[in-house]
């Protein structure tokens, strides 16, 4: 459970000039402050218009016509079971003391009772009062004065039953939003498959395209010569807390949200009350008459619907583009001169202020940021905008959605901020390990990739391709620091060996991968989306140094398609299946018993599968499908064998794409088989259908249900399954073990391999596959560029994996020896000045007497000498690899290197021990 942060007893708390000392007084002061923010603001003119229009809209019948069908239909057990796993555990309960764990572990009878409760509130349009109660715990904000009520963040604890009901309603509301396209494409906040990175990428590419227009030879011409931009980032004061409920209801009805759903939302928002708890002392309840509940599942979607008409209003401003992520709103105004861009920016600011006044919101002009984006430095000081009565001038940087923009889009300020953010994280990583203790290397790699590299790569698809080379170097420094912690390698270790041993990509690799991913994401959007339009455009380039994700992404696409054929990106699934739609009589079986596991002999696996298949009806229609891809990534093909009850067979072959995973090829095969089956005239609809696949990943994906599918191919499979099931045919999907001698499965596998030879050029490729292919290509290109040397001799073009099965000290020795810089080497210590001799203070010569191996005194104790030549370790080499002269590639074995390092250290310890 989340622990409440206690406010020190006896510490006075300031509240609008009054001083609260007792805990009860503090709780009352907090509640008074929070309730005052969420009070209902009276505005006679707006309220009169709102009530009049609401009366008209409320008089209309719901889309369901009172039949409570479609989106208004009762919730099903399938919907309930789909949402229960999404309940977040280890969260504090609300006033009813019911935890999410209680709900997730309910049995069948309790689930049925819970479903009846949900359907009663849904059908009546009323919500229990307990669902509209909250307990607020104030949490001090970091760096703020704890004696002020405004310096605490309110954390509202609400009923988990209410949150479950919200999830059920939110799933339906989200489907309606997607189906009817209620939210403009400029809004990417809290939308499935969209992210802040997309808006940032659109902004960067739009500015670069404007700069690349022809330089004016005389008077600048708007829309034809190089553009200048004014970027404004607005801040709404307490955007979620001041939304008028009646106005929200009006907007939902205006947008066409079903009346039944709108009525439930209205009932859920009205008459909300909360009490504040301070050090165990509870205040009185106060009403919260406006705003969206904190922590509400519905709140983000409701806000995006609330602000949809703001985007419509801003579209009327010429030369201005809108970027919204929930309540974070930014506008980019362009012009042939900075004065023209400023006038348009002022018009956008006035439009936002007018919209806020109309809907009882307030723009915090003092928090609004402005930035000039121009190739001319003199333009930076020529922007001044008035926002809600406050004067806003252009700054040197602007922070938007976690990324700091500068005038030239070099992102130097952002890279410096990232370094400040990441260095403490690297220090945390360093405290998780030492020379002889700590996390395993696999765990260290996980932390480094997620905690350190993840912070560096936030929204990197937008800004990293545009960053200058000098700023990429800053990112590389932080990645190398994390790599040294993971591997224990020394500061002088060559960067290519260090990054390879740590399993971390370089900044240049990340740049190319993220650019390709961003281009693929943009290309997967529907036609007409502004980001898709930018991705498809090919404006002339005037500035050679101005590169963004589109150009770098196309370079990567060209490397992925050596033949020159363009990559066809599959459009993402824009509208998922309705959550209330019944999945039909479709069953999934993902095992054949304990003997079907991969570690069992093929004969046992085959026998277990045959016993399982014998339990199905013999007169069923059988589909055996399989997928194949060369090396698991290239030239995918799907094959299926359809066997009817009378023994007749049909073969199906389908190309799955020149870039393809085996799982995706399996899905292509299954979709093609179902299409063939349903298109057969006079097919037998009285017999069951048994579908056998050897891909657990594909079956597990489909088992999540039709509404959970996120790819077109999986959605098409479910449409076909539901269509077949609607005729009364039960469908069983059974996993079978691969390559264990099942004749029909082997035949399907052969069909899939034949299908991989089919033409692949017209088959679309999904974003995930493109991203993985780009990562492989970037890695291969980086490895090809490795300089010749000791590390490349060992690994060639391969990448080392984590050292496993060895203690931390041995793992560090393995990495250092393979990287070529070993802290136990006399030659290395002398080279860096740590082992001076009377004859030579410091040098890098391997012939220097001070660099000789202390064990054999024959030559310098370089890693090559220790691992391959030192006569004192001949016995160890013979025992480990069967020869005293192993090859360099045999040093890829972690155990061999660790044993030789341990043997060398043992020899040194004997020399140090007095006789």
Q: What would you say this structure looks like, in words?
A:
- 43% of the residues lie in helices and 13% in strands.
- It has 915 residues and is of the alpha+beta class.
- The chain folds into five domains: 13-182 and 246-289, no CATH class; 196-239 and 303-406, Alpha-Beta Plaits (2-Layer Sandwich); 412-560, no CATH class; 586-763, Nucleotidyltransferase, domain 5; 824-912, no CATH class.
- The chain starts with 12 loop residues before the first strand and ends with a helix.
- Residues 120-405 form the Reverse transcriptase domain.
- Keywords: Nucleotidyltransferase, RNA-directed DNA polymerase, Transferase.
- Residues 617-757 form the RNase H type-1 domain.
Give structural attributes.
Alpha-Beta Plaits, 32 helices, 21 strands
């Amino acid at each position: 459970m989340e622990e409440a942060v206690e406010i020190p007893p006896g510490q006075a708390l300031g509240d609008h000039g009054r001083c609260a000392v007792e805990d009860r007084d503090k709780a009352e002061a907090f509640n008074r402050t929070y309730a005052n923010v969420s009070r209902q603001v009276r505005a006679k003119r707006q309220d009169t218009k709102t009530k009049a229009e609401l009366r008209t809209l409320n008089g209309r019948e719901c889309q369901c016509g009172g039949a409570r069908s479609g989106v208004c239909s009762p919730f099903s057990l399938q919907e309930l079971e789909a949402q229960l796993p999404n309940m977040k555990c280890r969260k504090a309960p609300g006033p009813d003391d019911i935890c999410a764990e209680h709900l997730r572990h309910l049995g069948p009878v309790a689930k049925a009772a819970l479903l009846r409760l949900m359907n009663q509130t849904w059908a009546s349009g009323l919500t229990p009062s307990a669902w509209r109660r909250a307990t607020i715990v104030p949490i001090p904000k970091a760096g703020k004065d704890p004696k002020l009520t405004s310096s605490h963040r309110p954390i509202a604890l609400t009923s988990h039953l209410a949150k479950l009901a919200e999830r059920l309603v939110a799933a339906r509301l989200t489907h309606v939003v997607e189906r009817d396209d209620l939210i403009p494409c400029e809004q990417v906040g809290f939308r499935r498959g969209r992210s802040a990175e997309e808006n940032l990428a659109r902004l960067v590419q739009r500015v670069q395209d404007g700069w690349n227009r022809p330089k004016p030879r005389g008077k600048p011409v708007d829309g034809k010569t190089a553009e200048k931009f004014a970027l404004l980032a607005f801040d709404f004061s307490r955007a979620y807390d001041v939304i008028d409920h009646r106005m929200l209801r009006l907007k939902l009805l205006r947008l066409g949200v079903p009346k039944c759903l709108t009525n439930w939302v209205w009932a859920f928002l009205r008459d909300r009350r909360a009490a504040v708890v301070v050090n165990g002392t509870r205040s009185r309840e106060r009403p919260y008459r406006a705003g969206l509940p904190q922590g509400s599942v519905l709140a983000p979607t409701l806000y995006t619907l609330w602000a949809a008409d703001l985007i419509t209003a801003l579209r009327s401003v010429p030369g201005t583009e809108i970027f919204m992520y929930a309540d974070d709103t930014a506008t980019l105004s362009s012009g042939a001169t900075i004065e023209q861009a400023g006038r348009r920016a002022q018009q956008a600011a006035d439009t936002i202020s007018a919209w806020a006044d109309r809907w009882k919101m307030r723009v915090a002009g003092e928090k609004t940021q402005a930035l000039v984006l121009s190739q001319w430095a003199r333009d930076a000081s020529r922007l001044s905008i008035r926002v809600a009565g406050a004067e806003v001038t252009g700054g040197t940087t602007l922070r938007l959605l976690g990324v700091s923009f500068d005038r030239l889009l070099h992102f130097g300020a952002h890279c410096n901020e990232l370094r400040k953010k990441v260095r403490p994280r690297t220090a945390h990583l360093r405290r998780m390990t030492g020379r002889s203790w700590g996390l395993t290397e696999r765990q260290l790699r996980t932390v480094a990739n997620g905690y350190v590299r993840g912070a560096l790569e936030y929204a990197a698809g937008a800004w990293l391709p545009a960053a200058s080379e000098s700023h990429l170097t800053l990112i590389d420094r932080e990645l190398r620091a994390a790599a040294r912690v993971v591997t224990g390698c020394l500061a002088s270790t060559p960067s290519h060996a260090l990054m390879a041993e740590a399993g971390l990509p370089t900044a240049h690799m990340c740049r190319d991968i993220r650019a390709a991913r961003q281009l693929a994401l943009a290309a997967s959007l529907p036609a007409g989306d502004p980001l898709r339009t930018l991705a498809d455009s090919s404006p002339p380039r005037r500035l050679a140094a101005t590169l963004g994700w589109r150009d770098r992404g196309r370079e990567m696409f060209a490397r992925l398609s050596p033949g020159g054929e363009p990559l066809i990106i599959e459009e993402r699934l824009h509208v998922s299946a309705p959550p209330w739609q019944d999945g039909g009589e479709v069953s999934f079986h993902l095992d054949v018993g304990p003997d079907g596991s991969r570690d069992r002999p093929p004969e046992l696996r085959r026998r277990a599968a045959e016993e399982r298949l014998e339990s199905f009806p013999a007169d069923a229609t059988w589909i055996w499908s399989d997928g194949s891809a060369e090396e698991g990534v290239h030239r995918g093909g799907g094959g299926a064998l359809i066997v009817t009850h009378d023994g007749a067979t049909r073969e199906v072959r389908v190309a799955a794409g020149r870039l393809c995973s085996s799982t995706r090829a399996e899905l292509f095969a299954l979709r093609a088989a179902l299409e063939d089956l349903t298109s057969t005239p006079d097919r037998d609809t009285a017999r069951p259908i048994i579908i056998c696949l050897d891909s657990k990943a594909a079956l597990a994906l489909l088992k999540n249900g039709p509404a959970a599918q996120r790819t077109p191919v999986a959605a098409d499979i479910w449409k076909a399954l539901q269509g077949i099931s609607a005729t009364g045919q039960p469908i069983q999907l059974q996993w079978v073990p691969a390559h264990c001698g099942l004749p029909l499965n082997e035949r399907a596998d052969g069909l899939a391999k034949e299908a991989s030879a089919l033409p692949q050029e017209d088959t679309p490729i999904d974003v995930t596959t493109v991203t993985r292919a780009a990562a492989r290509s970037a890695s291969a290109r980086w490895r090809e560029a490795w300089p010749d040397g000791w590390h490349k001799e060992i690994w060639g073009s391969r990448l080392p994996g984590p050292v496993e099965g060895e203690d931390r000290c041995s793992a560090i020795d393995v990495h250092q020896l393979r990287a070529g810089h070993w802290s136990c080497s006399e030659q290395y210590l002398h080279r860096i000045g740590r082992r001076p001799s009377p004859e030579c203070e410091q040098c890098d010569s391997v012939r220097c007497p001070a660099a000789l191996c202390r064990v054999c005194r024959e030559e310098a104790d370089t890693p090559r000498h220790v691992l391959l030549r030192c006569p004192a370790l001949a016995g160890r080499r013979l025992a480990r690899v069967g020869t005293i002269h192993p090859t360099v590639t045999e040093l890829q074995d972690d155990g061999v290197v660790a044993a030789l390092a341990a043997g060398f250290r043992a020899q040194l310890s004997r020399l140090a021990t007095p006789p």
